[in-house]
Specification:
GO terms for molecular function: DNA binding. Pfam families: Helicase_C_3, WYL. InterPro entries: WYL_dom, XPB/Ssl2_N. This is DNA-binding protein. Keywords: DNA-binding. There is one protein chain. This protein is of the alpha+beta class. The protein folds into six domains: about 120 residues, no CATH class; about 110 residues, no CATH class; about 270 residues, no CATH class; about 80 residues, no CATH class; about 60 residues; about 90 residues, SH3 type barrels. Helices cover about 40% and strands about 10% of the residues. The chain has 34 helices and 25 strands. A five-stranded mixed sheet has the order 18-19-17-16-20, covered by helices on one side. A five-stranded antiparallel sheet has the order 24-23-22-21-25. A four-stranded antiparallel sheet has the order 12-13-15-14. A hairpin with a 7-residue loop joins strand 7 and strand 8. The two termini are about 35 Å apart. The N terminus is likely disordered.
Amino acid sequence: MATGDTEREAYVPEDQGGTAAPRTLAEALRARGDEGLAALLRARPDLLVPVPNDLTQLATRAGTRASVVRALERLDRFTLQTAEALAVAPDPAPYAVLRALMAGEGGDPQVEAALPGAVAALREQALVWGGDDRLRLVRTARELLAPSPQHPSPTGLGPTVAEATAGMSPGRVQEILQAVGLPTTHDPVSAVAALTSLFTDRARMDALLDQAPTEALGVLDRLVWGPPYGEVTANPTPPVRWLRDRGLLLPTTARTVALPREVALHLRGGRAHRTAEPVPPAVGAAREYRPQVVDSTAAGQAYTALATAEELLKKWDEGGPAVLRAGGLSVRDLKRTATQLDVTEQAAAFWLELLYAAGLLASDGEADERYAPTPAYDEWLDLPAARRWARLATAWLTQTRTPGLVGGQDAKGRTLSALGPDLDRGAAPEVRRRVLDLLAALPPGAAPEVDAVLARLRWERPLRGAGNAGTDLRARLATWTLEEAELLGVTGRGALSAHGRALLGYGGVDAGHECVGASGVDAGHEGVGAPHGGAPHGGAPHGGAHEGAPHEDAAVALLAPLLPEPVDHVLLQADLTAVAPGPLRRPLADALAVLADVESKGGATVYRFTPGSVRRALDAGQSAAGLHAFLAAHSRTPVPQPLAYLIDDVARRHGHLRVGAASSYVRCDDDAVLGEILADKRSAPLGLRRLAPTVLAAQADPAALLAGLRSMGFAPAAESAEGDVLITRADARRTPPRTPPAPVPDGPPVPDATLLGAAVRAIRAGDLAATVTRKEPETPAPGGGSLPRTSAAETLATVQAAALTNSAVWIGYVNADGAASQRVIAPVRVEGGYVTAYDHTADEVRTYALHRITGVAELAEE
């Protein structure tokens, strides 16, 4: 078990600025300043949940497996390679040994320049502690990264000579010494030391390998970069026998041999990795466009995005598809939605999830649960177009629901449905933000290659990108981000738009360009491309998408001039169509959507008038005269005669028949019309019979009766119990007020400065209480307890003296719940049976009842 205080070594005093070398991780943390502790808690926020009582508990928590795994997953490739090198280095390892493992015997200027930053990053995250002459990797990290037959090392190195010969007979070790020309020894320990010394001596190793057969060198070449294990038969070939006799291959089992780590390092030239990667892969401009072209393209797509969102929600105004029992939208309903929007099913899932994340779409929660727009949708419609886009883009930046997963399967083999459960991926906002940051680091109008972006992300999080592009979720999230950004209009032609930059919090189009091509490990830590130093891997600059509202106002100001202005007129044509030469203003668009059907969309929208659409307007309470006046007021061309005739003809017949509830009935002043209905064979399913010359009764319900009569070519109107015509409205269905789904975080959130400061003070105070040296009370605690025991008179006298001298004391205290604790307090006032004191443990002023203080002790002199 890796804990702070269990990671001990034999203490050897060393001169490090007048202080001894830390013996434990807890001591190393205790030597840090407040800024160093805050940096640790900021880099590893899981250590704050809950706030540790003291530094020993903090060190223990920092060494747990779950926390170390999370910390390793957030290292970039070069920093992780540094940790892997320390895992195969001696423990502790001098900095010079680490440098040789990373840069090789010949040295590498780039590696040597980046290595101090990598070590500093590991120290900051408490994965490495100790001075440069005694670097120690946290034991849990060493266990995770060190080689073993079951878990080969990422470096491809095998066991050391000492580890491989641990179970070997002493006689066999002596035989190996004789085979390599070394004198035998009296004990196996010195024999292993002599063999290790040979394998780490370059000159003697070169001489030994010069004697090796060519085939033996070929065997070594196959094992040198890993895996270092190979199977052998009971009667191995001469090259393998030659290597095994001289210890260049050592047996690990009866049929397995391993290449000793010292031999592999010699053959590698001292390098732990085949290729060290101190510099992140560059994300350059693969295509370049004029910034104005990019902005115009993105603005056009933003307008299309708004139109698509409005069309989808308008189609669900009267209630959308039903909610599946397990939650989400059925495959059939998703296909139907995609057909209605004229997009792919994957794009339809994206729009559905985006509107759900923005709080514009939700389930109504009724018995027959269906999806419908929320009341927030009506408020959203009243906003200017650019502001509506900014709200959608903001929701997209922060949502953890991942529409790209729709259609796939979960761990239990169940199909993932749109708007259903199990679509949240906590890493999505961080990856989305990081991809956009990389785009922002390029010059305006520049678009990168997708493979370059994916390579950069794999360098920044290699442990989270261990698979290929088809299986690695992080790579798929990045690919989906680029596709969704184009759909939404954040990018145009693959390049980040000006309003996209503003939404991300970049002050100007040139922000971040100075970071392009930055090298060294700090490029990965500080987020290359972020302005003013940026934020670590996805942290939004200036309190961006993850910490607060993005810069919507700046994005709106840049996008608004690029969107087409709404128009207040249409062009009526003789073929019963109307052409809208641009986006229509809201009242006109709503009224025309009821009166006509959309026939085609694009730069100009074409509406078609049909008997059914005119009847829909009449059902909504319009009159023929009102429709004529509406068209005359909003058309730049005269109202065509065919359209006027259509409106009058439908209005003449509208409401001639009346349908109500008996089960249902039909009444009409013209009994000949009712006779015509009864004579029509198509009326048979309705179960009609004549009750009076002007009334027919029906077995069908009113809605079915209305639909049946309309299918027969009549234009009935529904009426109330009072005989009034019922007016139907298309936009009457809304869900109750709904809160947008909260993003599911990928681990604890990064604490802000206030929380960090309070946590550091609390940990320091708890550490002071736990480590302070105190005088032993004259009366020992009964039963050997650790709480001090003093009489009431002694307690009162001691705290009064401390209040007079402004000194601190150590007390044992039992609260009203019976919980005992130890505290370091500085008494300020003692009166009325209570002592008011500054509590160093809680870092605040508190009042304690004297009768609950079990004992008091003065602090020892330093």
